[in-house]
Structure formats: structure tokens, C-alpha cells
Amino acid sequence: MGSLALRSCASRRCRLHGRTLRLPGSIHGGQPMSATTHLRRLRAAALILALSGPAVAASPVADAAVDVLDMHGTPASETDRGFNIFFDAGAWHGYSLPLARDAGSGFSGPFVHSIGAGRWAGRRLAQVTLAPPGGSEVIALREVGSHAGPGYLQRHFQGQGLQLRQTLFFADAQRALVRIELESSTSRALDVAVENEAMLAPGDRLVLHSGAVTQTFAGSAETVLTRLHQDVVQLLPRQARNQVVFASSQPVQLEAAKPLVLVLEQQLSAGPGPAVEVDADAAWSRNRARWNGYLQAIKPSHVPGVPDATAQRIALKAVQTLIGNWRAARGDLRHDGVIPSYSADYFNGFWAWDSWKHAVALAHFAPDLARDQMRAMFDYQAANGMVADSVYLDAKENNWRNTKPPLAAWATLEIHRATGDAGFVAEMYDKLVGYHHWWFAERDHDHNGLAEFGATDGTRLAAAWESGMDNAVRFDDAKMLRNGENAWSLDQESVDLNAYLYREKLDLAALAGVLGKLDERDAWLRDAEAMKQRIGARFHDAEAGWFFDARLGSGAHIRVFGSEGWTPLWAGLASDAQARGVIATMLDPKRFATPMPLPTLAADDPRFSPIKGYWRGPLWLDQARFGVEALRRHGHVREADQLTARLLLNAEGLDAQAPMYENYDPTTGKGYQARNFSWSAASYLWLLGVGRE
Fold it and tell me: Domains in the chain, start-ordered, CATH in brackets?
């Protein structure tokens, strides 16, 4: 257990695609720039790995699928999140490609996300050093290329007749494998060592046992175990402070043009992990099959004005973002799910309306994960039907001060539409009904059949959080009203909340129909029609041509032109006459048709703050997605395509290597807040037509 497997793979000579791909940068006005580098249009068939044996091909996918995100970075401190990190398969530990200026092979990591808010536990993994037998001079190898592909990281070095290739991938949520392939142009003997450098905080320890090394952490049950698979040649570990080196006691004999393969395994466990070494070849085959499944499932539609290759690349980036934020069940999280972003230290759990949006996208390429994403939130549903705002590894941290907007039935129906899984509908239906009824029991202050955002603790801050639009201008003057024990409402009825609830009645009707509950289906439809009339009468301002929140009591409109105003169009409750006024405002370049279109607040509002405003002006992709869908629903397909092209091409660096951001400046397209944001990725997939009807 702990020594290194050296296996011949002479049947395969691997070649690395060394070029780095770049796409045109952002533009303004929605017109695409011409590409400076030709990209082959990705097709599902081109993305299938040509894998005929156990060896790992150097570039297992088409060139254009490589390096859609820049995965280079070397941690400057334990908490450094200044660069992208590669996660996959639900793992809570991740890795990066070292910066080009950092000498040596191997990978940065691991970053362990399940310790506190996350920290680096290692600076370098699998750095290979080679030397003549007994020699003190290390053989210098030159880096040929380092690349990030869908489901793997890969490095290539050469020098003095030697080729070194390293591929890091995840076997499962617990185990990462590094496949090290060493090839010589001539027969020779070498001293071989694989070095790993840990980052130890006070109280952390490295323990050698049975040919492996275990890293423990002060105040945490997590452990990181590193071992080398045993086969022919043993490389035994030795420790020097924070470094563990697996070194050969005898020179390793290389035969000309017959690569030798070393397999390093690193495992993150909360307690004892799997005792049996994973089969690296089988694990790689499973990894490729899973990723090929993802890539075959995403088929972007043609967007006028957007090169198809660009659309494919953005779709792949969206999938990598969502899968990179996938976290397996662990601690008090009972099911797998997708966190909002690993790049921010405060996003170490699952959030409700983030989860619903993630599930809608995942349904079309990772349906099992989509189902688990829903379950993870409903695992903690309260007896009165409430769903928590967020849930964490430690359930004591779950936020019950508020919930989030009701989009869970929408997500469940989308999962059924993508999979036909009536069993999942049966599993979720009663839970969804309980959550829907909770809104009217706990958040309808005047019992008029229209709900308000609120909180369980009476705080204005939590009530605004419940809207999901934490600091939106429309809530500036809101006050709290007590409904009952642990039940408070804002003193305004919100148009988006009630549009979501109307849509939820329709979705519950559809789900009831799937289950053959025809009486319940008809009752939901009657309720929806009655609510539709109430919403139109309460929130629509014919003179302004917009839907506004309304003050409780007086019914006065809170005249803020925000993205909530097009939610009734998305929900399908606006009349054609009502929609015409809203769409005219949406398409006004002085208000919402900005270079990066459909911001959360009209650009001519004096309170518009496009950079640091959070929900007071920046563009959020979920709201833009709802806006584009509203245009399509009401027959404005050409305008929807035009705004979609701007959202794809004017987001800074989206068509190159930049990550997907939490929100964007609608005037420049520059991204802000958390990088690698999951619901932005989910929204981009819909905008690209993935799963769109």
C-alpha cells in the first residue's frame, strides 16, 4: 500500500496540444468582433475521448475544450482565493496549475473546502525530481505546456531525452489521482522522487504509516492521506518538516520509448477513508464517460451575432463552473448539491433559490445531481413547510431567519420535463405543497391572498434577504409588521414574490397532473386564475407601463423601475397590453437596454450604482435570463436574441478565459463580486438554449 506502481504503456505515444486558445475580448453594442484565432466548432463526437487502452491521452478532448478557464495559481497563504481552483466529482478538495514562473512539476494543492471556510493544506503535490544514479545534480526539465481540460489538469515537461507528463483527475468525491508518465528516448537508470509540500497551521501534523502519509488538522476531523500505488518499484516516503518525499531506494530502469507510469493518490476524509487503492485506469475511464456525457448533453442553439464556437466554449465554461462548485454529501449536508461559488469564503453551503436555479440547469446534463440539489434543501424543511435560506456542513449554522423566493416547484417540474421521472415528482409534491401554503400562512399580513417578504425574527435585514435582492432600492423605506409568533412581513407586497407564487400554482398543477391528482390539478388552476386577477389589479401601473411593489394598507405603488417589474411577464400572467408597456421600457437604452442589458435597476434612476450597488444597478444573470424569457414569451424573439448576444459578448472576458461573475456592471460588462458563480452559469446555459423549449 504506499509504494509506487511503475507500469509500461509502450502501446501509446502521447502528444500534447501545446497551443493556448484565445477568443475575442468584450465589445459594446452587441456586435461581435472577428475572432483572432480560428476555433473548430465543437461537436459532441469531437469531444469524445479516443481512449483505446489504459494510458491517458495527452489531450483527451478537442483543442477548443481546453483552457476555457485559467486554472493557474500558487497559494501565497493558506486562505489565498485569488485564482481559480479545479474541483470535480463533488470533491471538497481542489487543485490548480502552478504559475509558469514557479519552477518544478506537480500541482498546487490541495485546497480543502471543508475545513472552516476553506484553506490550502498543501503548496505542491507530485513534484517529480529525476537524477542520475547517486548523482547530486537534478536533471533540468523544461515546461512544454500546462492545461486545464474538462475533468482534468495536465502538465508536460521535457529535457535531456526525457518526457514527463502528469494528469490530475478525480476518481470520486474523496480521491484525486495524479498519473505520472515518464518516458526516455534511450535506455537509462534514474533516481526518481515524488515530492509533496504541505502547508501546516499550528497544531497540524504529518504522520507516516504503512507507506502513506496522513495530514491532520487542529480542530477538525478531516484528514488528507497521500499514498503511491504499489506494483513493481517501491518509492518509500520520508518526511522532513512540512515535506514528504517518496523516493526510490534503487535506481529505476527506463527502457527506450517505453513509458513508465506512477500513480499518486490523495484522499480527503472525515475520519477513516477507503482502505483499498482505487484502480486508476478504471477511474479515468469513468471520469471520461461522465464528462463525455456532460459534453454531449449541452447543445447550444445558434444565437444570431454570436459565433457558434464561442457559444460552445461559453456553454462548456458554464458546465465546468457548476461542476466545479458541486459538493458531495458531508457533515450535516445529507445530499450532494452545488454551492454558489468556491471563490468566496462565505459560500460554504447550499442556498435555497440558488439551488432551484442550479437544478433547472443541471436537469439537462447532470440530472442525478439536480435531484440531490433539491433534496439537500428539503432535508431540513420545517414542520410548518418553511425551507431554510441556507444549509451548511454544521446544521447549527443553518439560516432560519428567512427563506428565499419560491421557485422550487419550477425546478422540480423542469427536472421532470428533462427526465420524465415521475417518482421524483411523487417524492417532492407534498413537500412543495407545504412550502407553498407556508407563504400564505406566514407572509400574508392582511390575508388578501397576496404575500410579502418577511422574516422569522422581525429584522428588516432578514426580510430583505428573503427577497434575494438584499439591498434593492424598493425596500429602502420598508418597515416590519408582526403576523404572529416567528412570523413578520415587510409593509409592502412584492410583485415578483406574487408572480413566483402564481407561477408556482401553475407548476403545482402540472405536477399534480403527472401524479394523476386531477382534482388537485384543477384546484391549483382555479387558484392561479384568481391570483392572476389580483396581481394585475394590485401591481400594474397603466400610466407608467410597469409592475411595482405596493404598500400595505394604502395600496400605493412603490415607483422603482427594477427587474422585478418584468417577472409577471416571465410568469405568464401579464396581458398583451400590460406586456407592451413593460417591454418598451426594457428595450429603452437609457433604462434597461444597456451594453450589458437588463440591470436590476433602471440606468436613469438617480440611485443607480452599477459597480458596488449589488442589487441597486448591477446586472444579475438570473434576472436577465427572466427578462429575455419574458421577451420570448411575448413574441419579441429578435429583441431577445439581440440582448442575448450582448449578454454573451459584452461580459468582460467571458468568451476568453475569465470566470463567470456574481454580477456585472451593465455599462461596461466588467464582472464583480464572487467569481465562478453558479447561477450565472446556470442562466448562461438557458440563454444558450440548453434545455430551452
Answer: 7-20+67-281 (2.70.98.50), 328-420 (no CATH)
